[in-house]
Amino acid sequence: MSVPALPARFLEPTGFVWGSLPTNDGTRLRWGHLPAQEPRAECVMVGGFGECIEKYFETIGDLAARGHSVWCLDWRGQGGSERPRRLPSRPRPRHFDRDASELASFAEKLTTARRPRLLIGHSMGGAVALLCLRRYPGLFDAAILSAPMLGIRAGGLPPALMRCITGLARVTGLGIWFSAHTALRVDAPTWGWLDSALRLAAQTAKKEFLAGIDTPILLFSAGVETFLCPEAHRRAARLLPDCTLVEFPDSKHEPFLERDTIRNPWFAAIDRFVADRLARTCPELRQS
Hints:
- This protein has 288 residues and is an alpha/beta fold.
- It is built from 9 helices and 8 strands.
- The longest helix is centred in the C-terminal third of the chain and has 19 residues, at 260-278.
- Mean pLDDT is 85; it is low at 156-160 and 166-176.
Protein backbone atom coordinates (compact mmCIF):
# COMPACT_ATOMS: atom_id res chain seq x y z
CA MET A 1 0.00 0.00 0.00
CA SER A 2 1.32 3.46 -0.87
CA VAL A 3 1.67 6.20 1.72
CA PRO A 4 -1.42 8.45 1.76
CA ALA A 5 -0.94 11.98 0.48
CA LEU A 6 0.39 14.15 3.30
CA PRO A 7 1.86 17.65 3.44
CA ALA A 8 5.60 17.63 2.77
CA ARG A 9 6.44 18.48 6.39
CA PHE A 10 5.10 15.08 7.49
CA LEU A 11 7.19 13.11 5.00
CA GLU A 12 10.78 11.90 5.22
CA PRO A 13 13.01 15.00 5.24
CA THR A 14 15.53 15.54 2.49
CA GLY A 15 18.91 14.19 3.57
CA PHE A 16 17.45 11.75 6.09
CA VAL A 17 19.40 8.49 6.40
CA TRP A 18 18.55 5.13 7.97
CA GLY A 19 20.76 2.61 9.74
CA SER A 20 20.77 -0.20 12.29
CA LEU A 21 22.66 -0.80 15.51
CA PRO A 22 23.36 -4.30 16.85
CA THR A 23 22.82 -4.78 20.58
CA ASN A 24 24.76 -7.02 22.94
CA ASP A 25 22.43 -9.96 22.26
CA GLY A 26 22.49 -9.45 18.50
CA THR A 27 19.14 -7.70 18.18
CA ARG A 28 19.22 -4.95 15.58
CA LEU A 29 17.70 -1.58 16.38
CA ARG A 30 16.67 0.78 13.60
CA TRP A 31 17.81 4.36 13.74
CA GLY A 32 17.35 7.46 11.60
CA HIS A 33 19.49 10.57 11.27
CA LEU A 34 19.01 14.06 9.88
CA PRO A 35 22.15 16.22 9.99
CA ALA A 36 21.89 19.95 10.51
CA GLN A 37 23.63 22.20 8.00
CA GLU A 38 25.51 24.02 10.76
CA PRO A 39 25.19 21.68 13.76
CA ARG A 40 25.48 23.15 17.23
CA ALA A 41 24.40 20.07 19.14
CA GLU A 42 23.60 16.37 18.81
CA CYS A 43 19.97 15.58 19.60
CA VAL A 44 18.96 12.01 20.46
CA MET A 45 15.19 11.45 20.25
CA VAL A 46 13.09 8.49 21.42
CA GLY A 47 9.32 8.02 21.34
CA GLY A 48 6.68 6.31 23.41
CA PHE A 49 4.74 3.07 23.40
CA GLY A 50 4.04 1.70 19.93
CA GLU A 51 5.65 4.65 18.17
CA CYS A 52 8.05 4.78 15.24
CA ILE A 53 10.52 7.27 13.81
CA GLU A 54 8.18 8.16 10.92
CA LYS A 55 5.79 9.82 13.36
CA TYR A 56 8.33 12.51 14.16
CA PHE A 57 9.46 13.57 10.66
CA GLU A 58 8.03 17.08 11.10
CA THR A 59 9.64 17.51 14.50
CA ILE A 60 12.95 16.13 13.24
CA GLY A 61 12.98 18.74 10.49
CA ASP A 62 12.16 21.52 12.95
CA LEU A 63 14.99 20.49 15.26
CA ALA A 64 17.50 20.24 12.41
CA ALA A 65 16.50 23.73 11.25
CA ARG A 66 17.44 24.95 14.73
CA GLY A 67 20.97 23.57 14.38
CA HIS A 68 20.43 20.24 16.11
CA SER A 69 21.79 17.17 14.35
CA VAL A 70 18.99 14.68 15.07
CA TRP A 71 19.39 10.97 15.83
CA CYS A 72 16.23 8.88 16.35
CA LEU A 73 15.95 5.36 17.74
CA ASP A 74 13.15 2.81 17.46
CA TRP A 75 12.90 0.74 20.65
CA ARG A 76 13.33 -3.00 20.20
CA GLY A 77 10.00 -4.56 19.28
CA GLN A 78 8.69 -1.28 17.83
CA GLY A 79 8.89 0.59 14.54
CA GLY A 80 11.52 -0.89 12.27
CA SER A 81 13.64 -2.42 15.01
CA GLU A 82 13.92 -6.17 15.25
CA ARG A 83 10.95 -8.03 16.70
CA PRO A 84 10.26 -11.59 17.85
CA ARG A 85 9.43 -13.94 14.99
CA ARG A 86 6.32 -15.21 16.73
CA LEU A 87 3.56 -12.60 17.10
CA PRO A 88 5.89 -9.71 16.12
CA SER A 89 3.32 -6.97 16.83
CA ARG A 90 2.52 -8.21 20.34
CA PRO A 91 3.93 -6.00 23.13
CA ARG A 92 6.04 -8.02 25.57
CA PRO A 93 6.89 -7.09 29.15
CA ARG A 94 9.64 -4.52 28.70
CA HIS A 95 13.06 -4.63 30.29
CA PHE A 96 13.37 -0.89 30.77
CA ASP A 97 16.87 -1.07 32.26
CA ARG A 98 17.95 -2.75 29.03
CA ASP A 99 16.21 -0.01 27.05
CA ALA A 100 18.15 2.62 29.01
CA SER A 101 21.43 0.81 28.35
CA GLU A 102 20.67 0.57 24.62
CA LEU A 103 19.79 4.24 24.52
CA ALA A 104 23.13 5.10 26.14
CA SER A 105 25.02 2.83 23.75
CA PHE A 106 23.24 4.43 20.78
CA ALA A 107 24.21 7.92 21.94
CA GLU A 108 27.82 6.96 22.62
CA LYS A 109 28.39 5.09 19.36
CA LEU A 110 26.63 7.33 16.84
CA THR A 111 26.85 10.90 18.10
CA THR A 112 30.01 12.94 18.24
CA ALA A 113 31.50 13.78 21.62
CA ARG A 114 32.72 17.11 20.25
CA ARG A 115 29.24 18.63 20.46
CA PRO A 116 26.80 18.86 23.38
CA ARG A 117 24.22 16.09 23.54
CA LEU A 118 20.52 16.74 24.03
CA LEU A 119 18.08 13.96 24.90
CA ILE A 120 14.42 14.18 23.92
CA GLY A 121 12.03 11.53 25.18
CA HIS A 122 8.25 11.33 24.87
CA SER A 123 5.93 9.43 27.21
CA MET A 124 7.42 5.94 27.72
CA GLY A 125 10.60 7.27 26.11
CA GLY A 126 10.66 10.08 28.67
CA ALA A 127 10.58 7.60 31.54
CA VAL A 128 13.36 5.53 29.95
CA ALA A 129 15.27 8.79 29.48
CA LEU A 130 15.15 9.35 33.25
CA LEU A 131 16.59 5.88 33.81
CA CYS A 132 19.35 6.64 31.34
CA LEU A 133 20.17 9.99 32.95
CA ARG A 134 20.33 8.35 36.39
CA ARG A 135 22.53 5.46 35.28
CA TYR A 136 24.80 7.38 32.91
CA PRO A 137 25.47 10.81 34.44
CA GLY A 138 27.33 13.17 32.16
CA LEU A 139 26.32 11.39 28.95
CA PHE A 140 23.81 14.12 28.05
CA ASP A 141 24.18 17.84 28.66
CA ALA A 142 20.42 18.39 28.94
CA ALA A 143 17.12 16.59 28.46
CA ILE A 144 13.69 17.54 27.15
CA LEU A 145 10.94 15.27 28.44
CA SER A 146 7.57 15.45 26.72
CA ALA A 147 4.81 14.11 28.99
CA PRO A 148 7.10 11.47 30.53
CA MET A 149 5.35 8.30 31.68
CA LEU A 150 5.03 9.15 35.36
CA GLY A 151 1.92 8.65 37.47
CA ILE A 152 0.04 6.27 35.15
CA ARG A 153 -3.71 6.56 35.57
CA ALA A 154 -4.56 2.90 36.04
CA GLY A 155 -7.45 3.55 38.41
CA GLY A 156 -7.89 -0.16 38.99
CA LEU A 157 -9.09 -0.60 35.40
CA PRO A 158 -6.16 -1.71 33.23
CA PRO A 159 -8.37 -2.37 30.15
CA ALA A 160 -9.44 1.28 30.17
CA LEU A 161 -5.80 2.30 30.37
CA MET A 162 -5.07 0.08 27.41
CA ARG A 163 -7.76 1.82 25.38
CA CYS A 164 -6.29 5.21 26.33
CA ILE A 165 -2.85 4.23 25.11
CA THR A 166 -3.94 2.67 21.85
CA GLY A 167 -6.31 5.58 21.26
CA LEU A 168 -3.33 7.93 21.22
CA ALA A 169 -2.14 6.42 17.96
CA ARG A 170 -5.50 6.99 16.32
CA VAL A 171 -6.12 10.57 17.41
CA THR A 172 -2.61 11.73 16.54
CA GLY A 173 -2.74 10.39 13.01
CA LEU A 174 -0.15 7.69 13.57
CA GLY A 175 -2.67 5.26 12.12
CA ILE A 176 -1.98 6.72 8.68
CA TRP A 177 1.56 5.37 8.77
CA PHE A 178 0.37 2.04 10.12
CA SER A 179 -2.15 1.70 7.28
CA ALA A 180 0.61 2.13 4.72
CA HIS A 181 3.31 0.19 6.58
CA THR A 182 1.71 -2.68 8.46
CA ALA A 183 5.08 -3.88 9.75
CA LEU A 184 5.25 -0.79 11.97
CA ARG A 185 2.12 -1.73 13.90
CA VAL A 186 2.10 -2.64 17.58
CA ASP A 187 -0.91 -4.29 19.17
CA ALA A 188 -2.77 -3.09 22.25
CA PRO A 189 -0.85 -3.17 25.53
CA THR A 190 -0.75 -6.55 27.24
CA TRP A 191 -0.94 -7.33 30.95
CA GLY A 192 2.78 -8.02 30.88
CA TRP A 193 3.60 -4.67 29.31
CA LEU A 194 1.30 -2.86 31.74
CA ASP A 195 2.93 -4.56 34.72
CA SER A 196 6.41 -3.52 33.62
CA ALA A 197 5.21 0.04 32.89
CA LEU A 198 3.70 0.39 36.35
CA ARG A 199 6.92 -0.89 37.90
CA LEU A 200 8.91 1.68 35.95
CA ALA A 201 6.56 4.48 37.02
CA ALA A 202 6.98 3.45 40.65
CA GLN A 203 10.78 3.34 40.32
CA THR A 204 11.06 6.76 38.73
CA ALA A 205 8.72 8.30 41.32
CA LYS A 206 11.07 7.61 44.22
CA LYS A 207 12.51 10.72 45.83
CA GLU A 208 16.03 9.32 45.99
CA PHE A 209 15.89 8.33 42.34
CA LEU A 210 14.87 11.78 41.10
CA ALA A 211 17.20 13.61 43.46
CA GLY A 212 20.16 11.78 41.91
CA ILE A 213 19.67 13.23 38.41
CA ASP A 214 21.73 16.39 37.97
CA THR A 215 21.15 16.87 34.23
CA PRO A 216 19.18 20.04 33.38
CA ILE A 217 15.67 18.98 32.33
CA LEU A 218 12.77 20.69 30.58
CA LEU A 219 9.58 18.83 31.47
CA PHE A 220 6.34 19.26 29.52
CA SER A 221 3.01 18.44 31.17
CA ALA A 222 -0.35 18.41 29.36
CA GLY A 223 -3.56 19.66 30.92
CA VAL A 224 -5.85 17.49 28.77
CA GLU A 225 -4.32 14.21 29.84
CA THR A 226 -6.09 10.85 29.92
CA PHE A 227 -3.06 8.58 30.33
CA LEU A 228 -0.93 10.29 33.00
CA CYS A 229 -1.48 12.32 36.15
CA PRO A 230 -0.14 15.89 35.80
CA GLU A 231 0.50 16.05 39.53
CA ALA A 232 3.18 13.37 39.08
CA HIS A 233 4.97 15.75 36.70
CA ARG A 234 4.75 18.59 39.22
CA ARG A 235 6.13 16.38 41.96
CA ALA A 236 9.00 15.17 39.78
CA ALA A 237 9.85 18.76 38.84
CA ARG A 238 10.09 19.66 42.54
CA LEU A 239 12.37 16.71 43.31
CA LEU A 240 14.69 16.93 40.30
CA PRO A 241 17.69 19.16 41.15
CA ASP A 242 17.58 21.14 37.89
CA CYS A 243 14.17 21.02 36.23
CA THR A 244 12.04 23.56 34.39
CA LEU A 245 8.36 22.57 34.29
CA VAL A 246 6.13 23.94 31.53
CA GLU A 247 2.40 23.22 31.74
CA PHE A 248 0.04 23.60 28.80
CA PRO A 249 -3.54 23.43 30.13
CA ASP A 250 -5.07 23.11 26.63
CA SER A 251 -2.66 20.50 25.27
CA LYS A 252 -3.26 16.80 24.94
CA HIS A 253 -0.62 14.13 25.57
CA GLU A 254 1.31 14.73 22.31
CA PRO A 255 2.72 18.30 22.16
CA PHE A 256 4.91 17.61 19.12
CA LEU A 257 1.75 16.68 17.18
CA GLU A 258 -0.49 19.39 18.56
CA ARG A 259 -2.00 22.31 16.65
CA ASP A 260 0.35 25.21 15.99
CA THR A 261 -1.15 27.38 18.74
CA ILE A 262 0.30 24.86 21.21
CA ARG A 263 3.18 23.41 19.22
CA ASN A 264 4.81 26.77 18.49
CA PRO A 265 4.92 27.90 22.15
CA TRP A 266 6.27 24.46 23.08
CA PHE A 267 9.13 24.88 20.63
CA ALA A 268 9.69 28.39 21.96
CA ALA A 269 10.06 26.90 25.44
CA ILE A 270 12.61 24.42 24.05
CA ASP A 271 14.55 27.26 22.42
CA ARG A 272 14.66 29.24 25.68
CA PHE A 273 15.72 26.18 27.63
CA VAL A 274 18.59 25.42 25.28
CA ALA A 275 19.75 29.04 25.37
CA ASP A 276 19.29 29.69 29.09
CA ARG A 277 20.41 26.41 30.62
CA LEU A 278 22.94 24.82 28.30
CA ALA A 279 24.76 28.02 27.46
CA ARG A 280 26.20 28.03 31.00
CA THR A 281 28.47 25.10 30.27
CA CYS A 282 28.21 24.93 26.48
CA PRO A 283 28.80 28.41 25.03
CA GLU A 284 28.54 27.01 21.51
CA LEU A 285 24.79 26.56 22.08
CA ARG A 286 24.09 30.24 22.61
CA GLN A 287 21.42 31.58 20.34
CA SER A 288 22.72 33.82 17.57
